[in-house]
Design goal:
The protein is α/β, with parallel strands linked by helices. The chain has two domains: about 220 residues, Periplasmic binding protein-like II (D-Maltodextrin-Binding Protein, domain 2, 3-Layer(aba) Sandwich); about 200 residues, Periplasmic binding protein-like II (D-Maltodextrin-Binding Protein, domain 2, 3-Layer(aba) Sandwich). The protein contains 19 helices and 15 strands. Helix 10 crosses helix 19. The radius of gyration is 22 Å and the shape is globular. About 55% of the residues are buried. This is Extracellular solute-binding protein.
Amino acid sequence: MKRNRVIALMTSVVVAGVLAGCSGGGGGASTGSANANGNSSNCTNKIVKKDAPVVTLWAWYPNTEKVVDNFNNAHSDVQVCWTNAGAGGAEYDKFQTAVSAGTGAPDVVMLEADRIPTFQVQGALVDLKKLGYEDVKSNFSDGAWKDVSVGDGVYGAPIDGGPMGMIYRKDIFDKYGITTPPKTWDEYAADAQKVKDAGGPLFGDFPANQPAYVTALLYNNGANPFTYNTANKGTIGIKLNDDKSKQVLDYWAGLVSKGLVGKQDQFTPEYISGVIGGKYATYLSAAWAPGYLQGAGVGKGADANVWATAPLPQWDPSNPISVNWGGSAFSVTKQAKDPKLAAKVAFGVYADDASLKDGWQNQIIFPLNVHVLKDPNFINAEVKFFNGQQANKEVYVPAANAYKGMTYTPIGQYYYSAFTKQIAAINDGSKTGSQAADALQADVVKYAKEQGFTVK
């Protein structure tokens, strides 16, 4: 069966590292002597109830220890033994090794949503549908659940997300007479041209090294790049060169060719220095961006109190589409000693009020729990980075509530790699957006077929 070839392929994948899907996450190495092999003999955190069964957890967010302590102090029937096995790609490499070896994985592992199908197709994750999902289903939107689902199965407990908006510099907008943030992509291009004609900075950036971000922009135009359902074993729908996708890529190719936006790789020292130095008027990003930017040194000194945020521009303002970039979940692994108990931890860690409040108040995460999204304290919070603007109320909560979810597939990492090449070709002028879309479609379809998938 083709499915066997697909599983063999995914087992051999060396999972590439990507930016953690919130505020640059990336906690450093764990303290103490915690093991990164799923062993609970040593833990980074303290076990409070010595006689309770222990569930091992890999996670990397900066306040994970506090979150785990909150959980352990509130539970006498189970305790969490936490290890920071690395952030993002570093953790995935270790988890892939454990999956391939059949041993060494934790009971619960933090995964970014787009990584879940990669491990699910290998049989490495447990479906949570009958392990407490119904009890917490109402805590998250349909879009949040779709992101952690594969077919009819649920393979992650949502933690946070990245509803997108448009961060911009008020000082640059004021200087060049932009009185209202652009609401449509046509307005965005017109404002970009206005600033350039007046000798101003680049209006934004089109980075080749962030294909997940560009994928979100495709969804923003109503594109649906992939369909994938495990009920249709070994079948993937791939639609990367439809009219909507080509429209988006041709649009950005036009901005690049006119010198209206940059083409600098993001999350690099060069990009951050440009942000700090006023090289870009806007930064299209997610709700976790303020925490990341502050951590990188943005918003201090000369560029303090100049930042604001607005909703992401739309192609059709009468039919707005909210999109997401980033976000993580807790998944139960097939190596879990007690899947039911592990699921209780997955659903319960980072779900209590104290942990969620610490996450959003310190701009570590943007919680997707609807109890937070409906909390007046969260909605009306005045965000320091945005000089007191109620960013959640005006931008990110409405975007999170309207988000319908994305479809991720087991070939997602190859797709990202292939898309990176095509965005680079757009940026160097060797391909138009439409040509890049056609090349991407051919490349990804060929790859999927080589791995035993049926492509529709």
